[in-house]
Design brief:
It is found in: Cytoplasm. Pathway: Cell wall biogenesis; peptidoglycan biosynthesis. By secondary structure, this protein is an alpha/beta fold. It has 16 helices and 22 strands. The protein has three domains: 79 residues, 3-Layer(aba) Sandwich (Udp-n-acetylmuramoylalanyl-d-glutamate--2,6- Diaminopimelate Ligase, Chain: A, domain 1), CATH 3.40.1390; 213 residues, UDP-N-acetylmuramoyl-L-alanine:D-glutamate ligase (3-Layer(aba) Sandwich); 150 residues, Mur ligase, C-terminal domain (Protein-Tyrosine Phosphatase, Chain A, Alpha-Beta Complex). Strands 9-10-8-11-12-13-14-15-16 form a nine-stranded mixed beta sheet, sandwiched between helices. Strands 17-18-22-19-20-21 form a six-stranded mixed beta sheet, sandwiched between helices. Helix 3 packs across helix 5, helix 4 packs across helix 11 and helix 15 packs across helix 16. The longest helix has 17 residues.
Length: 471
């Protein structure tokens, strides 16, 4: 494999001291996913990464980035010794960005940043050497890790930037130094930390502070907080491009048609008419796709080719992925599960319920929603959960199951004919859910990640696997 960091390069980037002469082909922070040749970064989190250095070296790590040599590691073992491991990882990230001559797109937003990032992976990856953040690596270690893993010959890079508290986005954007910076949307997420949605908008808008000279800002024009985004963008960007459903925008979303498992999109991008499709349903996905294509245009890539490539994009686990789970092989009895258990706020909950409402069950199957708590909404959280009862999509659902203390506020006002079981814990819902289902059902499982409703997802997957094992 191509060398990513030599010992000399990593030492120069971090100011550290090397032991041995080594070459790394990757960077890892987890021994469970480490590949031979990786530089293992011994971060301190729930556990101290120094406790795993010996294991990393045994698994074939090229070296370990440490602040001290662990007692169970030989004196001659290949190391890069620095005063502070997280700071050194940031230094590697800065150096990785510095040596890359391509163009960088940075994405933030309350909802849709991971989806838009993954769409750009497909749209740009078909055209050039493209480097994209893994999973939701978007925090103070995820962003520098993504940059440190970036090959020097990368032509396009897509960096996701998230936040949990004020002041987190701007430093990460300044590290990424994007040529294009995007805010997908601003919604009532992390209200506990910000109090009001305007505070969230100002934090999201701080992504523009890292823009390179001549940089482009992409903003959602359909929001109450759009003026906040626009003002910040105009300060830092050479060009501001707005996208949304409002007619006359540089990137305008036109008609969106949901056909079971497909979204057909009509749009206009810089006066170019577009007609393309996604192999996944969702009106919110259409806006994410348009934003991705606006970023494609901003970095000078081929727009029609990117739009065509988006037909191959697929939702990932926990973020709307659809799976068929066989319950009765003899009768071809199966359910369809929509796994969206990793992120939830009022806006994304409404979008996911609309997808379920548009889905077509098989035979006598039902549309069933299994909903867990939306977290970090502050004192208005109970009311926001109850307000879900007013969503038009609920009228097309057959059964609504709820889990968690906040979702109890929705359960209390649901129509009796649609009210499914309510459980206090996700573990209890995971236990009872399989017994509620019958062949043909389409089941949406939607919650914030911290609500742990992914346990119900796992329970359904295991149900299908158990049947497969018996046949």
């Amino acid at each position: 494999m191509t060398a990513l960091w030599t010992a000399a390069e990593a030492a120069a980037a971090t100011g550290g001291r090397t032991v041995g002469d080594w070459t790394a082909t990757g960077v890892s922070i987890d021994t469970r996913t480490l590949s031979p040749g990786d530089l293992f970064v011994a971060l301190k989190d729930v556990r101290d990464g120094h406790d795993f250095v010996a294991q990393a070296l045994e698994k074939g790590a090229a070296a370990a980035l440490v602040s001290r040599r662990p007692d169970d590691v030989a004196a001659e073992a290949p190391l890069l010794i620095v005063p502070d491991v997280l700071a050194a990882l940031a230094d590697l990230g800065h150096a990785g960005r510095e040596r890359m001559a391509g163009r960088v797109i940075a994405i933030t937003g309350s909802v849709g940043k991971t989806t838009t990032k993954d769409m750009l992976r497909v749209a740009l990856g078909a055209q050039a050497r493209t480097h994209v953040a893994e999973a939701s690596y978007n925090n103070q270690w995820g962003v520098p890790l993504t940059l440190a893993r970036m090959p020097a010959d990368t032509e396009f890079a897509v960096i996701e930037i998230g936040m949990n508290a004020p002041g987190e986005i701007a430093p990460l954007s300044r590290m990424a130094r994007p040529n294009v910076a995007m805010v997908t949307t601003v919604a009532a997420v992390h209200l506990e930390a910000f109090g009001v949605i305007e505070g969230i908008a100002r934090e999201k808008a701080s992504i523009f502070e890292g823009l390179e000279p001549g940089g482009v800002a992409l903003i959602n024009a359909d929001l109450e907080t759009t003026p906040i985004l626009r003002r910040a963008a105009e300060v830092h960007a050479a060009k501001v491009v707005e996208f949304g459903q409002t007619p006359g925008l540089p990137a305008t979303l036109g008609e969106v048609t949901l056909v079971d498992e497909t979204t057909v999109i009509q749009a206009s991008l810089h006066d170019m008419p577009l007609l393309f499709k996604l192999a996944a349903p969702g009106r919110h996905l259409a806006l994410n796709a348009l934003a991705a294509l606006a970023a494609v245009a901003a970095v000078g890539a081929d727009i029609p080719r990117a739009a065509l490539s988006l037909g191959a994009w697929e939702a990932v686990t926990g973020r709307g992925k659809r799976e068929r789970i066989v319950l009765d092989p003899a009768r071809d009895g199966a359910i369809e599960m929509i796994d969206d258990a990793f992120n939830a706020g009022p806006a994304s909950m409404a979008a996911s319920l609309e997808v379920l409402a548009a889905a077509t069950p098989e035979g006598r199957g039902r549309r069933i929603a299994v909903l867990g708590d939306m977290l970090e909404l502050g004192p208005d959280g109970p009311a926001m959960h109850a307000d879900l009862a007013d969503l038009p999509a609920l009228s097309k659902l057959d059964l609504i199951c709820t889990s968690g203390p906040l979702m109890a506020h929705l359960d209390a006002i649901l129509p009796v004919d649609k009210r499914g079981p309510h459980t206090e814990t996700a573990a209890e819902m995971a236990r009872i859910l399989p017994g509620l289902l019958r062949p043909g059902d389409i089941v949406l499982i939607k919650s914030s990640k911290g609500s742990r409703l992914s346990l119900a997802v796992d329970a359904l997957r295991k149900l299908g696997q158990a049947i497969a094992d018996r046949t």
